[in-house]
Amino acid sequence: MERYEKQMLYGEIGIEGQKKLLTKKAVIIGCGALGTVIANNLVRSGIGYIKIVDRDYIEISNLNRQILYDEEDIKENLPKAIAAEKKLKKINSDIEITSLIADVNSVNIEDICKGMDIILDGTDNLQTRYLINDTAIKLNIPWVYGAVIGSSGIVHTIIPHETPCLRCMFPKIPPIGSVETCDTAGVLNMITSIVASMESMEAIKILLNQNENIIKGLQFMDIWTNDYEYIDMKIDENCIACGNNKFEFLELNKEEAVYICGKNSIQINPIQKNISAEKIVQKLKSLNIDVIQNAYFIKFLVEDVQMTLFYDGRAIIKNTDDINRATSLYSRYIGN
Ligand SMILES: [Zn+2]
């Protein structure tokens, strides 16, 4: 308990609070800029059990903000989940830490989240966030949403039926490619660490049943312009997810969503059927990628793979048979 001395001195936590935290279980979905900071915070705070899920490998461009990784991990070609677990165990050997190298999808997400006391969003895409929302409502587990871009970020805490869920606030997922991502707009490590720390703080309040102090609406901030805005949000009684228990993102069969189609080729078929072709082409061009576009598809070569994107959101990714990599490339170059 000695290692928690300083946080136990904080009245809202105390010895009893700390003992409680040591019995709690948290899952962190995505271990990049947000996930590494959340994991670091929660492990050092003594949450009893931490599960980390991530599908990617570490790249040099991650190191400016993904605080658990270093150059050695890249030399060893380690997946993020493994490198994170290794480092976190060195930080706190009193608690249990497990990791999973996986693309979180409609088939595995319920198993991943079952039995957890809280789900933390460390993802970089909307598709997975809508999937987390469905799962959290279905399994009645609180989750904390966090997102960053450039110098701005947003945090919101969802306690099923107590605060508005993601679909109460944004019933429709925006068209693929319509939302800017960190791959084009960039991101600063100061905002990722702030948003991730706010997510961690929300988690601790929830784990201590101090729900009166959580962020019930949308907390927006831009730390370059110093704009901080709180937007009050309300539960939508007609919400498809928390009002009607219909879980569209969870119901999408994974086999339909991503599968190996032929030799060294993967098809991705997202639930959203509308894309913002113009914005996707614009984004690719801004990354200096040559794009072939006709009435049927958008085609481009990137990172040794050929991607063909159809206007219904479906994409064929050639020259890989790694589903995790294909999903990752889709989210990086196409969106969501
Ligand atoms: Zn809702």
Short note summarizing the structure:
The protein is α/β, with parallel strands linked by helices and 336 residues long. It has helices spanning 5-9, 14-21, 33-45, 71-75, 80-91, 109-113, 126-139, 166-169, 182-185, 189-207, 248-251, 254-257, 277-286, 323-333; strands at 25-29, 49-54, 96-101, 118-121, 143-149, 152-158, 218-222, 227-231, 258-260, 265-268, 291-293, 297-302, 305-310, 315-318. Bound molecules: zinc ion.
Low-confidence stretches are none
CATH class wording of the largest domain:
Alpha Beta
The main sheet comes to:
8 strands, mixed
**Strand order, largest beta sheet:** 3-2-1-4-5-6-7-8
- Name the CATH superfamily assignment of the largest domain: NAD(P)-binding Rossmann-like Domain
Strand content: 15-25%
Instruction: Name every ligand kind in the structure.
Output: zinc ion
User: How many helical elements?
Assistant: 14
User: What would you call the structural class?
Assistant: alpha/beta
**How many discrete domains?**
2
Helix content: 25-40%
Shape: globular
pLDDT averaged residue by residue: 92
Termini separation (Å)?
42 Å
CATH topology of the largest domain: Rossmann fold
Task: Report on this structure.
The protein is of the alpha/beta class and 336 residues long. It has 2 domains: 2-231, Rossmann fold; 253-333, TATA-Binding Protein. It has helices at 5-9, 14-21, 33-45, 71-75, 80-91, 109-113, 126-139, 166-169, 182-185, 189-207, 248-251, 254-257, 277-286, 323-333, and strands spanning 25-29, 49-54, 96-101, 118-121, 143-149, 152-158, 218-222, 227-231, 258-260, 265-268, 291-293, 297-302, 305-310, 315-318. The strands form 2 sheets. The protein has an 8-stranded mixed sheet with strand order 3-2-1-4-5-6-7-8, with helices on both faces. Strands 9-10-14-13-12-11 form a 6-stranded antiparallel sheet. The termini are far apart. 44% of the residues are buried. Zinc ion binds next to helix 8.
